[in-house]
Write a structure and sequence with these properties.
24% strand; Alpha-D-Glucose-1,6-Bisphosphate, Chain A, domain 3; 435 residues; single chain; alpha/beta; TATA-Binding Protein; binds magnesium ion
């Protein structure tokens, strides 16, 4: 059983993510990578886990460089000068969680063979410390934020709009507000103090967590609102009318700006993007930014995105970068209102459901669903992550959740009647298998 989820190793502090595990991660990484840069978000457990991971790294004879509290894209960008980068974060999870994201120096998350090697080392626990006179040393790496900011400023233009930035108490507090000011924006900051308890709001930048931002955009008469998750690889937005613009809508807006030939999205992203970019190749991957990033590099595509608010701009670099995305959007909004861009993107009706299942029957249910889904008459069946059935006027995705005992069904079509038709077919077949 792999310790890696779709975005590194993550879990509850002192339960899945223990000090021992953190130190072992340091030992495993230090045995293969000799110069490791390490950063963390604002979580209360961040400093503690940093110390444990650094101990492990040093005991294996490698050198550690501490970038301090930084966003994930800031750390990944810093990683280019090292053998790898470790980011201590649980991303958008609540404050009681933490974890580690692993970055290669090219901005891509660790690949399967790298993850497998770490997994194997963590399972065997056969770590050999080096002799006392070969123990590694820890140095500071204080320039990460400035380097990332300069990289972004070299890739975006200026902007004279008014922006409200909601850092949510997370790691972007030290970059996004000052970056936007340097671009020329008038900036209002919400939750811009590091807060490992995330007491102001849940770190996930979803509509239900952003009431304060929506209100602030309206009351301060701003042109744009931007929200990040705890580690800043995500960004969602609010238009000048105070409307939340996230997920598939923002995906389409950014795709229209970025894509010439091709883009990469996960299997659950809306088909609106296909319709808006009829000449572009749309590659679909498993759900998870790691998979989007890998496919992006393989296909040499122009843009990669997840409706969760994860944006990858390969002309910038390969790590999802919510800070860059926010800066780019600020530049775009200086030329055209976000509400206008949003209203030009159609919204197709969707139906989403989760049906509980008995996890003891997982294998049998998977087999049953596979057989039944293959018998449905459709244009194309994709099985990279669950079963995605493409029809002429819509699609359905049926997946067994990895984190909950639920079969998830998502249906989207151009017309409400078609959604209902597709949903009825897929739902009844799923019920039949679960019975
Ligand atoms: Mg994140």
């Amino acid at each position: 059983m792999s310790l890696f989820g779709s975005s590194g190793i993550r879990g509850r502090v002192f339960e899945e993510i223990t000090l021992e595990l953190a130190s072992d991660i340091g030992k495993a990484v230090g045995s293969s990578y000799k110069r490791v840069v390490i950063g963390r978000d604002t979580r209360t457990s961040g400093e503690m886990f940093r110390s444990a991971i650094v101990s492990g790294i040093l005991s294996s004879g490698a050198e550690a460089f501490d970038a301090g509290i930084v966003s994930t894209p800031t750390l990944a960008w810093a990683g280019r000068g090292f053998d790898c980068g470790l980011m201590i974060t649980a991303s958008h999870n609540p404050g009681g969680y933490n974890g580690v994201k692993f970055w290669n120096s090219n901005g891509l998350a660790f690949l399967k063979e790298q993850r497998d090697r770490i997994d194997d080392q963590l399972t065997r626990k056969e770590f050999e410390p080096v002799p006392w006179d070969e123990i590694g040393s820890l140095s500071g790496h204080d320039t990460a934020v400035e380097e990332h900011m300069e990289k972004i400023l070299s890739g975006v233009g200026t902007s004279d709009i008014k922006v409200v930035v909601d850092c949510g108490g997370g790691a972007t507090f030290n970059i996004t507000p000052s970056l936007l000011k340097r671009m020329g924006c008038d900036v209002v900051v919400l939750n811009g103090e590091p807060d490992g308890h995330f007491s102001a709001r849940d770190p996930e930048p979803m509509e239900e967590n952003l009431a304060e931002l929506m209100e602030a955009v309206k009351s301060s008469d701003a042109d744009l609102g931007i929200a990040h998750d705890g580690d800043g690889d995500r960004m969602t937005a609010v238009d000048e009318k105070g409307r939340y613009i996230g997920g598939d809508k923002l995906l389409s807006i950014l795709a229209l700006h970025e894509v010439k030939d091709s883009l990469v999205v996960p299997v659950d992203a809306s088909m609106v993007v296909n319709d808006l970019l009829p000449d572009a190749e749309v590659y679909r991957t498993r759900v998870g930014d790691v998979f989007v990033g890998e496919e992006l590099q393989k296909r040499n595509a122009d843009f990669g995105a997840e409706p969760s608010g994860t944006w990858i701009f390969p002309r910038h670099f390969l790590c999802p970068d919510g800070v860059y995305a926010g800066a780019l959007l600020a530049e775009m909004v200086s030329k055209k209102k976000l509400s206008e861009m949003a209203d030009e993107v159609p919204e197709y009706p969707q139906q989403v459901e989760g049906i509980m299942f008995d996890t003891k029957r997982r294998e049998e249910i998977t087999k049953g669903l596979d057989e039944k889904m293959r018998s449905i008459d459709c244009v194309e069946l994709t099985t990279i992550d669950g079963w995605r059935l493409q029809f002429e006027e819509g699609w359905a995705l049926v997946r067994l959740s990895g984190t909950e005992p639920k079969v998830r069904i998502k249906v989207e079509a151009r017309k409400p009647n078609t959604v209902e038709d597709i949903y009825r077919t897929v739902h009844s077949i799923t019920e039949e298998v679960l019975r």
